[in-house]
Structure formats: structure tokens, C-alpha cells
Amino acid sequence: MKEKIKITATELFLNLGFKSVTMDDIANEMGISKKTIYTHFSNKTDLVNEVTSSLFCIISEGIDLISAAQKNSIEELYEIKRFVMEHLKDEKSSPQYQLQKYYPKIYSTLKKKQYDVMQDCVKDNLLRGVNSGVYRDSINIDFISRIYFNGVIGIKDNELFPLKEFSMNTIMEYFLEYHIRGICTAKGLETLQKFITTNQSL
């Protein structure tokens, strides 16, 4: 039952927002009593914490699998973006922004874990990209990996990028192209153009 509650809560939180969804909403959606939920979770904060931790693990494992495939570095970034968007329901409810605003302690812990995972993933992507000739060999990998993380976090600021003006999927597309163009070689630019053209025609 605990796992079923987490699955339902995850769907509701991602589609409607961490603040908007109440324990009553989750109970009604599942056709159970609120008391049943409280048997497994002491309060909403406890549930939010478990949901975000589970999501983090699922996404981290998925990113590891994509990275292990050792694809072209540029293609890999787009593949990771697609995977993350799929699991976060295109971030229609600005989950990261809502966490930061209403559950700051959970957000802070999650951000630290995200940073650790992304640093390894992005550094590996950059190094392979340099070695394969799609990224410039003059880039500072440590700096670029940090600025990339900062950018990914920054574009999810709902005040800077309101969802009514920018869908999260569109922003991520813009950001990825911006990131790659800043570090790629002529060979990398050619790869990027082909990839963008192919995806636009799908």
C-alpha cells in the first residue's frame, strides 16, 4: 500500500504541484481513507520527501544507463533530457520551484544529491566529447560542468521563466543548444545541426 500511495502522490504532485495537492486529494484519488495514508507517512512533508527521493533514484539510475551506452556526447545529452522530461511529466507544475519555495530543506538536500550525480555525468560527457572531437579541447571541464548544473537549475526558476510563456521542454531544448554551441567544434556543430534537423522532422 505504501508504494501505491507514493505512485499516486507522485503523479498528482508532478501534474498539479507539491503545494496544491492535499492528503485528502491523494486519499480521494485512491479511494482510501486519509487515515490509511497516515499509517505509512507521518505528514505531507514526509510523503513529499519520500516521493522526491524515489524520483531522484529512478532518474539517476536511468541517466546511468544512458551514459553507460557511450553514445555520441551530443546525442547523449538530448537522450537524458528526453528521459528526465518523461519522468517529470514535462515539469508542468514546476516541481523544483515549488520544492524550493515550500519545502526548502527537502530541496536543499535534493539539490546537493543532484549536483553530485550531474557532476560525474556531465564531466564524463564533456571528456568523451573532447576525445571524440565534437567538443573543443580547450574547454575547462570542471568550469563547464558547474556552469551547466547552474544553468539547468536556473532555467527552472518560475519567476524568470513563467510556464505560461515557456514550456519546460522548450526551455531545455534552447538551453541544450546554447550549451553545446558554446563548447563544440566544427565537427560537433555539424552533429548538432543534423540532430536538431532530424528531431524537428519527427
Describe what this molecule looks like in 3D.
By secondary structure, this protein is mostly helical. It has one domain (about 1-200): Tetracycline Repressor, domain 2 (Orthogonal Bundle), CATH 1.10.357.10. It is about 75% helix and about 0% strand. It has 10 helices and no strands.
Per-chain topology:
Elements: H1 2-16, H2 23-30, H3 34-40, H4 44-68, H5 73-87, H6 95-102, H7 104-132, H8 141-154, H9 168-183, H10 186-200
The proportion of residues forming helix, as a percent range, comes to over 70%
The class by helix and strand makeup works out as: mainly alpha
Shape: elongated
Q: Kindly state the mean pLDDT as a whole number?
A: 89
> Segments where pLDDT lies below 50 for 5+ residues?
none
CATH superfamily assignment? Tetracycline Repressor, domain 2
CATH topology-level fold name: Tetracycline Repressor, domain 2
Gyration radius (Cα, Å) is: 19 Å
Number of strands: 0
The CATH architecture designation is Orthogonal Bundle
Number of helices: 10
User: How many structural domains are formed by the residues?
Assistant: 1
Give the biggest sheet. none
N-to-C series of helices and strands = HHHHHHHHHH
Q: Give the CATH level 1 class.
A: Mainly Alpha
Distance between the termini: 40 Å
DSSP strand content: under 5%
GO molecular function, one term: DNA binding
Domain HTH tetR-type: 1-59
DNA-binding region: 22-41
Keywords: DNA-binding
